[in-house]
Structures are given as structure tokens and as C-alpha cells.
Design goal:
The chain is mostly beta strands and 252 residues long. 6% of the residues lie in helices and 40% in strands. It has three helices and 17 strands. A five-stranded mixed sheet has the order 5-11-10-7-8. Strands 1, 13, 16 and 17 form a four-stranded mixed sheet that branches. The chain has a four-stranded antiparallel sheet with strand order 12-2-14-15. A hairpin with a 7-residue loop joins strand 7 and strand 8. The two termini are 27 Å apart. Bound molecules: copper (II) ion.
Length: 252
């Protein structure tokens, strides 16, 4: 089954606020029952994020203000604002279940999500994390970075991390849509984080696909969010033990 609903791309400002309509952290802690997924009936939602038309040309990143950053790149590094894969799919799209899950308190995994700084570039460019899950920040560069989480729902923070410093651990307690993470030292550095109330989210990689596993049967609204092209939604119904697919299409 494949259904697709196209919506107008939302302006970037909207991205910072999306997700605020989901359950708040406080509500999750005090009222909602613990989530339980019956593995016997859980299914899988998967799909691809397609890109039509010509991929926009991305500017080369200018590392020249810092030779220690520049010398780590033997080949030109393009900005990652829009990355169209060779199979005409779009990378770095955050996918999540927006509506349809039972109202419940989902426990974040014990394992941290990593955000690396390598060659004065954030890696990955877009990441999803659960509310309350640990974000582990690494600095693999010989230079000082100043990580600025420009969150709006969660308290923003701005902290430096010297070369070879210990890993930094952070967490975001409330669900929040895609927000930028910048560096106060290197203006070209930019990544995005989305904080989810539940574990059903993904970020498209070099094949443009996504898979959400262990999803309880139900009718869902699935949201795709891209830093430049904004938000799109689609609906699907997942049967018990089922596999449901949904593709999104962006274009220049
Ligand atoms: Cu930096």
C-alpha cells in the first residue's frame, strides 16, 4: 500500500516549533502509562524520500580561515544543505511518526547518540534522539569548537570543547522539531537535531530510505522534515505484523 500526500514546504522558522504539539516532557513523566509494544503484532514502516529535478549546486565550504581545519580536507567539501544521492533520493531527511501512537511514556535507550566534530564539520549532519537520551559529543579536531544548540523548546546552550577534551554528554528532556547546532568559532559548521518523544524516527542516508521497526499496528501520520525544503506528511495504516510503505517526494 502506498499513499502520498503532498504539502507545501514549511518555512524554516516553523521547523523550530514543530513537535511542540506532541506530549510535553512533564506530561510524559507524571501522567502517561509506560509504553508497551506487543512484539507479536508489531510491524515495519518503510519508504524512500525521492528528489525530482536537478540537484541544486551546493557551495564549497571555505575552511581557509583555519589551516588546521583546511588541511584535513584533501578534496573540496560541499555544504550539506541539500544532498541528493546518486539514486535520486534526498539525504538527511528526518522521518518520524507524528500522530497515531498510543499516548504513552516511551523509555529512551541507554545507548548515547554520537555527534562528532571532525575536519571542522559536524557528523552526522542531521540526527534524531529521544527525549532523555544521552547525546555524546566528540571533538576529533586539533582545534577548539564552541557547540551551540539553538533549541527553542529545550533550553539552548553554548559550550566550548577544546581539542582532545573528554566527550561531552548532554540530553534534551522535551520533544522538539529540527533545530540547528552551530559552532561559535567556525561559521560554516551546522548540524540539526530533532528530539522525539518515542523511538519511531529515522534519518535518510546515502540510499534515501528509512525503516521504522517494531511499530504497533495502527493508522499513522508520518512526517518528513528537511532543513531547507521543510515538512511533508503522509498517512498509512499498519496491519498487525504488517509492512507498510510510504514515499515522500521533494524537488527543486
Ligand atoms: Cu567549530
Amino acid at each position: 500500500m502506498k499513499r502520498l500526500k503532498r504539502l507545501t514546504a514549511a518555512p524554516l522558522l516553523f521547523l523550530a516549533a514543530c513537535g511542540s504539539s506532541t506530549q510535553s516532557g512533564n506530561e510524559a513523566e507524571t501522567i502517561l502509562p509506560a509504553a508497551h509494544v506487543d512484539e507479536a503484532t508489531a510491524g515495519t514502516i518503510s519508504g524512500r524520500v525521492l528528489f525530482t529535478g536537478a540537484a541544486p549546486a551546493m557551495p564549497e565550504v571555505d575552511f581557509s580561515s583555519n589551516p588546521q581545519c583546511e588541511r584535513q580536507h584533501r578534496t573540496p567539501q560541499k555544504a550539506e544543505t541539500v544532498v541528493v544521492n546518486s539514486n535520486k533520493t534526498l539525504r538527511n531527511v528526518f522521518i518520524r511518526i507524528k500522530d497515531g501512537l498510543p499516548r504513552a511514556r516511551w523509555t529512551p535507550p541507554a545507548q548515547a547518540v554520537q555527534l562528532d566534530q571532525k575536519g571542522c564539520v559536524y557528523e552526522p549532519h542531521v540526527l534524531g534522539i529521544m527525549a532523555g537520551q544521552q547525546l555524546e559529543i566528540l571533538n576529533n579536531d586539533p582545534v577548539n569548537h564552541n557547540i551551540h544548540a539553538e533549541s527553542k523548546v529545550n533550553p539552548a546552550w553554548n559550550e566550548s570543547q577544546p581539542p582532545r577534551a573528554e566527550h561531552k554528554f548532554k540530553q534534551f528532556d522535551s520533544p522538539e522539531g529540527l533545530f540547528p547546532v552551530t559552532c561559535g568559532v567556525h561559521p560554516w559548521m551546522r548540524s540539526y537535531i530533532a528530539v522525539s518523544a518515542h523511538p519511531f524516527f529515522a534519518v535518510t542516508g546515502d540510499d534515501g530510505s528509512f525503516t521504522l521497526k517494531g511499530v504497533p499496528p495502527g493508522t499513522y501520520t508520518i512526517e518528513a522534515v528537511h532543513e531547507k525544503y521543510g515538512s511533508k506528511e503522509g498517512q498509512l495504516t499498519l496491519a498487525p505484523n504488517g509492512n507498510a510503505t510510504l514515499d515522500f517526494t521533494y524537488g527543486s
